[in-house]
Amino acid sequence: MHNRMANKTCSPHKRLNIKGVTIFSVLILVLSVVCIFVYDLLITLPYFQTKNIQITGHQFLSKTTILEWVDLTPTENILAINLKKINHRLIQNPWIAQATIQRTFPNELSIQIVEKKALAVLLFDRPLIIDTSGFVIKEQTESDPMNLPIVTGMTHADLSQTDESLSQKMIAIVRVLAEKKQTVGFPENMKISQLHVDIDFGITIWIGDPEFKILLGSENYQEKFHRLRKLLAFFRYRKAYQRIEYIDMNNPDRITVRPYSEKNSDGKEV
Questions:
Q1: Residue-by-residue DSSP string for 193-232
Q2: What are 96-151's pLDDT values in tens digits?
Q3: What CA–CA distance (Å, rounded) separates 196 from 206?
Q4: What span, in angstroms and rounded, lies between the C-alpha atoms of 262 and 200?
Q5: What span, in angstroms and rounded, lies between the C-alpha atoms of 112 and 76?
Q6: Distance between CA 57 and CA 29 in Å, rounded?
Q7: Angle, to 10 degrees, between the axis of helix 168-182 and the axis of helix 221-238?
Q8: What's the rounded Cα separation, in Å, for the pair 221 and 254?
C-alpha cells in the first residue's frame, strides 16, 4: 500500500519532466531548422557575394597563383568561405611562411602573407632552394628564381628541418651571403655566382664579371667583406678585374692577390 501511494505521488512529476524535455527538444529542433534556413538564405544573397579580394605581402608569388592555389574565386559568397581551411592551404605552399585571412563585411576578403626569401641553390642530383634562414624551400623548377648563387660541397646530412638547428656548413653559407649583402658600398656587379664549402678549408666564392674566386676561409666574414670592398674599389679604378685569378683572404691582415697568368705557345707563363 505504501509503495502504491509513493508511485501515485511521483507520477505527476515524472510526466511533467518528460513533457518539459520533449518541449525543449522540439524547440532546439525548430531553432536548428530556422538557423539552417537562414544560413542557406544568406549564402545565396548577392549582397554577400565577394567582390574584392586583397592580397598583400607577396612578391614572388602572383595574386593569380595564390588564388589558384587555394581554389578561391571572387564570385564566392563571403559567408560560405572556410577561413581556417584556406589558411591551412596557404601555408602548405612552399613559398609561404605565414598567412592571415579575414572577412570584411559585406563583401571583401583580405589575405596577408609572409613569403620565404630564396637565398641560394644547393647543387645535388636535384637542385634545392634554401631560404635566408638556411632551410630548404623546395626543389628548383623552371618557374623558380634562376639567378641565385650555386652552392656545392654540401651533403644531405648537412640539411636541417625547420625544427632543427642548422649544421655548421649551413651556418657558414648563410653568414657569407648575408654579410656580402649587408656590406655597404659593395659593387653591384660583384655578385656571388658560386659558393663552395669545405669542412677543412672553409668557404670559396666565385664573384664578379669576369669571374674570379676568393678564398674566404672559415670566419670573420664581415671584416673580410669590408676589406674586400676596398680592394675591389682599387682594382675597379685600375680596371684590373680581368687580370685577377684569385684572392686569398684566409688571413685578412695578409691578403694575397694572384694575377691571372697567360701562357704563350710553348706553355710558359708570361
A1: EEEEEETTTEEEEEETTTTEEEEEESS-HHHHHHHHHHHH
A2: 999 999 988 888 899 999 999 999 999 999 999 999 999 999 999 999 998 999 99
A3: 9
A4: 30
A5: 19
A6: 45
A7: 50
A8: 15
